Fold this sequence. Notes:
Elements: E1 3-7, E2 10-14, H1 22-27, E3 40-41, E4 44-47, E5 50-51, E6 78-80, H2 102-110, E7 134-141, E8 144-152, E9 158-162, E10 179-185, E11 188-194, E12 214-223, E13 226-234, E14 243-251
Parallel strand pairs: 9-10
Antiparallel strand pairs: 1-2, 3-4, 4-5, 6-14, 7-8, 8-9, 10-11, 11-12, 12-13, 13-14
Amino acid sequence: MRKLLVVAGVVVVVLPLLAGSPAAAQEQPQVQRDATGNPIGVLGPVNALGQELKRPPAPTGPAPRLPDGTIDLGDGAWVTAPGGGDSIAGRLSGGGELPLLPAAKALMASTKLTDDPVNWCLPLGLLRTSPYPFRFIQNYTHKKPTHMYIMSEWMGSFRQIFLDGRKHPSDLEPTWFGHSIGWYENDTLVIDTVGFNDKFWFDRRATPHTTQLHTIERWTRVDAGHLVREVTIDDPGAYSRPFTVTFQATLVQPGDELMEYVCQENNQYGFASGVR
């Protein structure tokens, strides 16, 4: 039974179990630890880098559809699954080596990895999304989509894809993400892009391209939680033939959204700070 003790006008509740008593110690939950002795929290192991989150697997049910029957890509954010290492060569469909022309090989060999444009807060370019989430946003005019945007968490950058049947202009100004037109082939979103500049890298290994770059992307939502992206790269200025690389993405957990990410010039990010 609890007793009330009044001291100087203050009511103190005296509990039968004190924090240091043997009985109290028996009631304290035991801390779970992994094989190396690190504590394991509710969300996973806790180590020097903080809490390692363990999330449930992405759903595998049928992919949702829009009212007109089109596969819905915009019901959540996506994260590209790891794979391929630091080079897109690891994502080549069918394996093998990149069909680099001699001049492109020489350029790649002479480029310093510390000069990666991403280290200076410049756009990721077309192929580099991981580990930053992205999501699709569509607009509708008279129940028909006319534009799609692919938003990236990296500096809030976005790509604009025209779905209204227009063609590529003949006098494009080269840009980081190029000029994109899109359409659906059954349940696959196809995006055709030209008009790139030659400033971004395909990967961390300085795999190059030129302003002749032309890409065809095929985005297929195979189920509710998994997305396959196949990108055919045609650049006669840097490669002897077209080739295709494949990426896998998973849907993030419900309620997770893109966060604000501001990268400023001269912020000493990555290699610029001497981190290797």
